[in-house]
Amino acid sequence: MKPFKVILYYYYAPIEDTETYRDEHHLFCVQHNLLGRIIIAPEGLNGTVSGTPEDCEAYMNYVRSDSRFKDVQFKVEEHDKIAFQKLHVRVKDEIVNSDLGVDPLVRTGKHLEPAEFKQIINDPNVVLVDMRSDYEHELGKFKGAITFDMHNLRELPDHIHEIEHLKDKKIVTYCTGGIKCEKASAYLLEQGFQDVYQLHGGIIRYGLEEGGENFDGKCYVFDNRIAVEVNKINPTVISRCYICDEPCDRMINCANAECNTHVPVCHKCGEEMEGACSPECKAHPDKRTYDGTGYYVSNSNHYHPLQGLKSQKKNIKKMKLAQRTEPAQ
């Protein structure tokens, strides 16, 4: 057993007071030494956190103790160290940016559990559609899957015409952890696709529960691991080094902060280029220090965890004052 864990999850459920919940949530993470990225939005909760097994267990219990999230599904992986260097708990409009105008709580594609997915992926009437960004599926994807040249889910409407001719097929969408597919599959149904499914829990859960068979390459993840192995049955490498074109499944972010492109780069080229993707980026004045990983900590949103504590104390003080000034019944 490795000394740390990484937890990936999402859950669609209405959150009315996102600011208050953000404060409470952030404080819990600080008190339990958890690092990671968590998004809180009116439509739900989405996060990846990392810490010791004990702290991660406490966190999962904390989330599930809220009746809104009692059925949340966690994907839990072991790791040699904490997979983040900071804690970010942010309030946003959506837990996954899409602008698709759909509500997964109203309508979404049918969930396929990993074992069910494994049984049907070789069916000639099944079409696998990758709903991730281009740099993600270039590193790894399911055999035979359709991919789109898009950088984020907001661009999906621009690519629907590429699969219009497949409306009579069984469409199965997939992504890293399942969250994008809740909206992507809903959008396909809005566009007239009739038989739409999604891999419940995404690539990560399929790898954990079914061994990842027929997933070629590695899976891009949004923490300092950058890429993880999924396929323990018939693995292969499909990506090539961006610089020397040799087979390579090691992903980096370009050291030039203005570029920050996500590309496969082998160890040798990574050292020679100091983590940059081109000579121009190597010479750029904003080039970050390359430590051999190609992972760089994102900028802080300047929210301090103690803000939550101050907000809670302020609210308690207001409540007590209101109670003292209430007229006698």
How would you portray this structure in words?
This protein is an alpha/beta fold and 329 residues long. 28% of the residues lie in helices and 20% in strands. It is built from nine helices and 15 strands. The chain has helices at residues 18-31, 53-64, 114-120, 134-139, 179-190, 202-210, 267-272, 279-282, 305-325; strands at 4-12, 35-41, 44-51, 75-79, 87-91, 110-112, 126-130, 140-142, 170-174, 196-199, 215-217, 219-220, 227-228, 251-253, 262-264. A five-stranded mixed beta sheet has the order 4-1-3-2-5. A four-stranded parallel beta sheet has the order 6-10-9-7. Helix 3 (114-120) crosses helix 6.
**Major sheet: arrangement of strands:** 4-1-3-2-5
Structural class: alpha/beta
Helix content: 25-40%
CATH topology of the largest domain: Oxidized Rhodanese, domain 1
Average of per-residue pLDDT values: 92
Please tell me how large the radius of gyration is.
Answer: 22 Å
Beta-strand share of residues: 15-25%
The CATH homologous superfamily name of the largest domain equals: Rhodanese-like domain
The tally of domains stands at 3
InterPro entries: Rhodanese-like_dom, Rhodanese-like_dom_sf, Rhodanese_C, TrhO, TRHO_N
Pfam families: Rhodanese (PF00581), Rhodanese_C (PF12368), UPF0176_N (PF17773)
GO molecular function: oxidoreductase activity, acting on paired donors, with incorporation or reduction of molecular oxygen
Function: Catalyzes oxygen-dependent 5-hydroxyuridine (ho5U) modification at position 34 in tRNAs.
